[in-house]
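Quick one, tokens below:
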């Protein structure tokens, strides 16, 4: 692939992506087994589905030596399996001309695994593709806290012992430590709850969404919780930094322009669990006997709110606000870097049907 370039105010073209004559489409084989049900004269309805999806010839950016002039090349390099269940249930609680109310709940569980990666590990920043692990898992040094004697940041060495266990000794030199696979960007469980209610001419509805089991890496944390290495505005955790021998804290000593705990480690990895009020709406429809006088079929006034609140222990802007650190791979990286949260939106309006 070629792209525009310039040199000495002259326009030209140059290669921007290597080609691969063996490149082909990904192939997916999927099995689904499901049951639809209706109980108690359809008071309860819903479905239960089990699926297993196997994708071969996965398209990934495979790293190349920099001497090639490129950093990566798109290739078909593996196999991935997604397996899970989806369960939904709708309860038609009331169904009358003046009052109706139904509630729908949704539960999904998915397990993602790279089952074959002939080219071996592919490391992309803080993410790794490794056979037997989830797609784009986090590959980080394991943070071990702060040395109470001198305020140094500590890391678990995590070298492999002869008996197959990991060396849990600590070091203040991150180059002596080894990275491990720890967490991934994809939720293990997802929940949803929708409710719609109508009382005469009034209507009310809301949607709750929840995700559990995913992790998020705050790449900006190295700057905003940087222990004086950088000059960004600092997070309040710096008030708990190590200052005197004997201090017990997990925030290293602040050292101007000096790295002390800013390595890509689990220090900046957090759970991304959340429950969010995704949408809420409230409306009033004018009585048709009145609107007919003005040759109008329906007039509805409404208020709606989007992303009104989120319950989460994540300390960043938003547990879903991530940046794309995987280039053209199209793989969710789960990395946040000053990533803006979704907007909280309020809307007032009127629907008129003639």
């Amino acid at each position: 692939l070629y792209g525009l370039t310039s040199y000495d105010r002259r326009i030209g073209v140059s290669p921007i992506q290597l080609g691969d004559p063996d490149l082909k489409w990904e192939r997916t084989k999927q099995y689904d087994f499901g049951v639809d049900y209706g109980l108690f004269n359809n008071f309860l309805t819903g479905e239960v589905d089990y699926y297993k999806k196997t994708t071969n010839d996965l398209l990934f950016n495979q790293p190349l030596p920099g001497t090639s002039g490129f950093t990566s090349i798109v290739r078909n390099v593996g196999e991935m399996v997604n397996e899970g269940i989806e369960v939904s249930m709708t309860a038609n609680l009331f169904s009358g001309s003046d009052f109706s109310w139904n509630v729908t709940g949704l539960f999904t569980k998915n397990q993602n695994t790279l089952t074959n990666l002939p080219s071996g590990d592919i490391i992309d920043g803080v993410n790794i593709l490794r056979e037997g692990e989830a797609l784009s898992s986090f590959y980080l040094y394991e943070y071990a806290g702060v040395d109470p004697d001198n305020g140094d940041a500590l890391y678990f060495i995590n070298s492999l012992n002869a008996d197959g266990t990991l060396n849990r000794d600590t070091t203040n030199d991150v180059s002596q430590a080894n990275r491990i696979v720890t967490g991934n960007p994809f939720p293990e469980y997802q929940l949803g709850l929708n409710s719609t209610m109508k009382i005469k001419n009034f209507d009310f509805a809301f949607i709750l969404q929840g995700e559990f089991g995913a992790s998020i890496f705050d790449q900006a944390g190295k700057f905003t919780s940087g222990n004086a290495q950088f000059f960004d505005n600092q997070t309040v955790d710096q008030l708990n930094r190590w200052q005197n021998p004997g201090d017990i804290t997990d925030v290293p000593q602040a050292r101007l322009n000096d790295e002390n705990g800013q390595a890509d480690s689990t220090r900046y990895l957090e759970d991304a669990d959340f429950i969010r009020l995704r949408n809420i709406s409230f409306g009033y429809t004018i009585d048709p006997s009145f609107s007919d006088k003005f040759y109008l079929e329906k007039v509805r006034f409404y208020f709606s709110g989007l992303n009104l609140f989120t319950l989460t222990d994540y300390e960043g802007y938003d547990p879903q606000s991530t940046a794309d650190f995987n280039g053209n791979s199209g793989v969710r990286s789960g990395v946040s870097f000053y990533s803006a949260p979704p907007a909280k939106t309020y809307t007032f309006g009127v629907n008129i049907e003639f």
